[in-house]
């Protein structure tokens, strides 16, 4: 059974950096398209960044995080990362990693991601 799990969230001040990690229980996940989503209180879940599989040659970023966040993958470790720099209070949300089974190009529709982690809280204070 495929499981993905996030780690690395926390409480930081504006301008700080955090790196989120997401490990997968099945090797095949390292070949699929992966994504990071977030959901703030009272808002819909949104795609933050996505990376193609397996090489990660293509990436996608939401306009709100371009130039600040970097998505990457280490297939040898079966791990997905999200490096978040210059964090802002509006980045406060629960962050979820997801895997799009059988997809290898960028996917921006959350319905195409079959496997989801439990989420990790990121809180940015001003």
Task: Walk me through what this model shows.
The protein has about 130 residues and is mainly β. Helices cover about 0% and strands about 45% of the residues. It contains no helices and eleven strands. The strands form two sheets. Strands 2, 4, 5, 6, 9, 10 and 11 form a seven-stranded mixed β-sheet that branches. A four-stranded antiparallel β-sheet has the order 1-3-8-7, with no helix packed on it. A hairpin with a 4-residue loop joins β7 and β8. The termini are far apart. The model has no long low-confidence stretch (mean pLDDT about 95).
Q: Spans of 5+ residues with little confidence (pLDDT < 50)?
A: none
Q: What radius of gyration results from the CA coordinates? A: 13 Å
Share of helical residues: under 10%
Q: Helical element count? A: 0
* Main sheet makeup: 7 strands, mixed
What letter string, H or E per element, gives the SSE order?
EEEEEEEEEEE
First CA to last CA: what distance?
Answer: 41 Å
Q: Secondary structure elements and their pairing?
A:
Blueprint: E1 4-7, E2 10-13, E3 18-24, E4 33-39, E5 46-51, E6 59-61, E7 69-74, E8 79-84, E9 93-100, E10 115-116, E11 120-125
Parallel strand pairs: 2-11
Antiparallel strand pairs: 1-3, 3-8, 4-5, 4-9, 5-6, 7-8, 9-10, 9-11
Primary descriptors:
11 strands; mainly beta; four-stranded antiparallel beta sheet
Give a quick summary of the entry.
0% of the residues lie in helices and 47% in strands. It is an all-beta fold.
């Amino acid at each position: 059974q495929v499981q993905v799990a996030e780690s690395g969230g926390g409480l930081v001040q504006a301008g700080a950096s955090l790196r989120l990690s997401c490990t997968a229980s099945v090797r095949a996940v390292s070949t699929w398209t992966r994504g990071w989503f977030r959901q703030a209180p009272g808002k819909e879940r949104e795609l933050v960044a996505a990376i193609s599989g397996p090489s990660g040659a293509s990436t996608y970023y939401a306009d709100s995080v371009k130039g600040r966040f970097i998505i990457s993958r280490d297939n040898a470790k079966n791990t997905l990362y999200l490096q978040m720099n210059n964090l802002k209070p509006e980045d406060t949300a629960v962050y979820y990693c997801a895997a799009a089974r059988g997809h290898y190009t960028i996917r921006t529709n959350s319905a195409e991601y079959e496997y989801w982690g439990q989420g990790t809280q990121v809180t940015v204070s001003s």
